[in-house]
Amino acid sequence: MSQAIKRIDWRVFGILLGLGLLGILAMLPYIVDMLQSSIMTRIPSSDIPLALVIPLALVQNGILLSATILIGMLVAKPIGLRMPLISAWANRERPENVRAIVLCGILVGAAVGVALVAIEALFFLKRLPAAMLPLFDIPVAKRVLAGVVYGGFTEELLMRLFLLSLVAWILGRFWKTADGLPASGAFWTAIILVAIMFGLGHLPATSAIAPITPLLVVRAIVLNGVAGIAFGYLYWKRGLEAAMLAHMITHVVMQIPGVMLLKSML
């Protein structure tokens, strides 16, 4: 383990940690808006002054992110998962395949955003609890900032760099190719498992707004599962940056034209 730690590129680690913390900061205006409104009525009020929320959030999440990024970096590289752009920029090298990575991220992200809005409109919108509808009225800037920066950076570090890498690495210990890398089936299994966990991970926040019902469980798994599979595949085939960019573009589509369309259907 000590030898593996020595091989960590600490410049890359620092960039990733900075991006993850930036996502935490970007999420705070959205959370504060929800706490100060009548949306999150199912959680007890806190006596912690709002001025302490930001430093406490950064310290707590900084510790969590540091551990998950470190583990993710340790297990990702041996199984061929990579972050080509960040690694190149951190070491002052010229990155390769920038156009392909960016184009894939944009196209997949846009397609996923359209698909999620369509699924929401066709199957879930009319059945959502009334308590969840005010989420559409949170200012667009706060919704986009939280989705793009927190979703694109922090969630991808936690779900893809850490969790997907770890699950694929574990599966690859016994389900591998002749050259020692995880088999395609191992990667697909990891991608799908993590996508399901990605969906279930949104339920605690939902429970602070409305009681969890089978419909909301299915909605969380379907919407986040579709996105998680797409982002996981991009991470596997194009690198972490493609998954991050796709996650960002998905939220841009969902939070701007998507919310406008959904609100018009209510």
Which key features would you list for this structure?
single chain; 266 residues; mainly alpha; globular
Verbal overview:
74% of the residues lie in helices and 0% in strands. The radius of gyration is 19 Å and the shape is globular. The chain contains ten helices and no strands. With 266 residues, it is mainly α. It starts with a helix and ends with a helix. The model has no long low-confidence stretch (mean pLDDT 92). The protein has helices at 2-6, 10-36, 50-76, 84-90, 98-124, 140-172, 184-200, 203-207, 214-237, 240-265.
Question: What is the strand tally?
Answer: 0
What's the helix count? Answer: 10
Mean pLDDT: 92
Order of helices and strands: HHHHHHHHHH
What is this structure, in a nutshell?
By secondary structure, the protein is mainly alpha-helical. The protein is built from ten helices and no strands.
What is the element layout, followed by pairings?
Blueprint: H1 2-6, H2 10-36, H3 50-76, H4 84-90, H5 98-124, H6 140-172, H7 184-200, H8 203-207, H9 214-237, H10 240-265
Helix pairs in contact: 2-3, 2-6, 3-6, 5-9, 5-10, 6-7, 6-10, 7-9, 9-10
